[in-house]
Amino acid sequence: MSTPNPPAVRAYLARVRTALADLPAAEVDEIVEDVRPHLLEIAEGLGDRATIEAMTEQLGSPESYAAEVRAAGDYPPPPAEGTEGAEKPTGSRRAGARLALWVLVLGVGALALVGFAVGREFDAELLGMLVLIVPALAAAGWYVWSRGTGPVAELPEVRRVRSGASRRAGSLAVHLRTMAPAWWVLCAVLMGLSALLLVIRSSTAILVLPLFVGIAALALWAGPRSRTDRRLLWASVPVSVFVFAVGSGMVGYLADSLEDSTSESPYQYTSNTAYDGEPGLYYGDEELENLYVFDADGKPLRDVYLYTEDGRPLTVPRYGCEESTQSRITQGRDNRFPRPHIEQGGYDDEGNYNGYNAYRPSCTESDEVPFTAAIPK
């Protein structure tokens, strides 16, 4: 663009000025100068299609744009506000508005915790906590929907927060508006992906599939509309926070899964390995080659198969004797216990025991248990 202010930008700004005409002229000039660079950026992106209609399609009408800047900068409302916020709230309405506000704040915090836990653990049972959160948010949202956001905006705590924010936050808010459509689509996609991964991990998670579909639909419907209808913030804000929390938890879950897959064998039960690099069975720092199992009467059990708590076989090396060399060798891996007791050694020419360095090596296998067990009663 060769001109600093294209016609579409000038026309858009003129309507913004008109919508803010009740404010002091100096403040209106400050607002216009704050938002002008953003409008020029939008117009430059549109190129030859830069018309006020095209800008309205991306940013909303100049009047709604001005209303958002007004709200973000804590400027007083226009003289005629229609049905929303036109009358001062009574004591009962103020109590209801305060309850709706704090239900939103606390509900959003609880959703953040639940969403992160669901994404981190991929446990569908954690979603049961939504039974307490969602109805409260729905009731607060219904209150605001039927009475408007005016009573909430007039609450002292809301006015203090808004007055503490910089008026230039209005330009940031309108910048974020251009990202909103993509964000709501991303919310729906993340909910679908989360539901799919939950169902893959646990078939019972299919019971919560309608919940995720409902959240995705709510994001697509309420999200874009909440920029002009503030009553829908009681739907769009919880959805945004929940989706962001689930996504953050998923990042941690996938990072841990990637680390586990690259650092451990899929059949490794501890960080210790046997001499051949395969998983070993350890008690503290001591590698175990055999296990003996007894019943309540102290009788040893034969052919016992050991499994972990999630059904994986506890496979460790099995040793035996090589007949030709009379040496101990590995005969594979399995989870059947007890194994034969291996006795290996030899004697020199004088008949003295010489252990593993024997001149005449020997290796024998015995199925006898080399000890007796006293089972506590």
From TrEMBL:
<feature type="compositionally biased region" description="Basic and acidic residues">
    <location>
        <begin position="331"/>
        <end position="342"/>
    </location>
</feature>
<feature type="transmembrane region" description="Helical">
    <location>
        <begin position="206"/>
        <end position="223"/>
    </location>
</feature>
<dbReference type="Pfam" id="PF22564">
    <property type="entry name" value="HAAS"/>
</dbReference>
<feature type="transmembrane region" description="Helical">
    <location>
        <begin position="232"/>
        <end position="255"/>
    </location>
</feature>
<feature type="transmembrane region" description="Helical">
    <location>
        <begin position="126"/>
        <end position="145"/>
    </location>
</feature>
<protein>
    <recommendedName>
        <fullName>DUF1700 domain-containing protein</fullName>
    </recommendedName>
</protein>
<feature type="transmembrane region" description="Helical">
    <location>
        <begin position="99"/>
        <end position="120"/>
    </location>
</feature>
<keyword id="KW-0812">Transmembrane</keyword>
<feature type="transmembrane region" description="Helical">
    <location>
        <begin position="182"/>
        <end position="200"/>
    </location>
</feature>
<keyword id="KW-1133">Transmembrane helix</keyword>
<keyword id="KW-0472">Membrane</keyword>
<feature type="region of interest" description="Disordered">
    <location>
        <begin position="326"/>
        <end position="355"/>
    </location>
</feature>
<feature type="region of interest" description="Disordered">
    <location>
        <begin position="71"/>
        <end position="91"/>
    </location>
</feature>
